[in-house]
Design brief:
Radius of gyration: 16 Å
Strand order of the largest sheet: 2-3-1-6-4-5
Structural class: alpha+beta
Distance between the termini: 31 Å
């Protein structure tokens, strides 16, 4: 049975090639909202490109999250990592062997194992 879950995400757009994540995926999650946003020029560098930091949350069911994960890794051929504490699940496409129901069951089991309803999520290429 699907569980309610709070998913938290963060995104940074910097000069260096860091793991920035996929802002479009985060914002496409049902109920996603940006909780914080800040930006400005980098400190101590000659380049004046801004650094943007954003964070947000989405309240949704594990079933909806599983559907979004399955679609994302299949269509975008990317990776998603969800974590709670020191426990994590990783999904990478395009040939993901799990269906939506299996992903939902794994998310529910993860939530039961850590006794929380909050997850951190990373979606991107690495």
């Amino acid at each position: 049975m699907a569980k309610d879950v709070k998913v938290s995400w963060s995104y940074s757009e910097t000069i260096a090639p860091y793991k920035n994540g996929d802002l479009h995926f985060y914002q496409s999650l049902p109920g996603s909202k940006t909780d914080s946003m800040k930006g400005g020029p980098p400190i101590g560098g000659p380049d004046f490109n801004p650094i943007i930091l954003m964070g947000g949350t989405a309240l949704l069911s594990s079933s909806v999250l599983a559907t979004a994960i399955k679609a994302y890794v299949t269509l975008k051929r990317r990776k998603i990592v969800i974590s709670a504490g020191d426990k994590k699940l990783e999904y990478e496409g395009p040939d993901l062997e799990y269906d939506q129901k299996s992903i939902e069951a794994m998310i529910d089991k993860l939530l039961d194992g850590v006794h929380t309803t909050s997850l951190d999520i990373y979606a991107g290429s690495e």
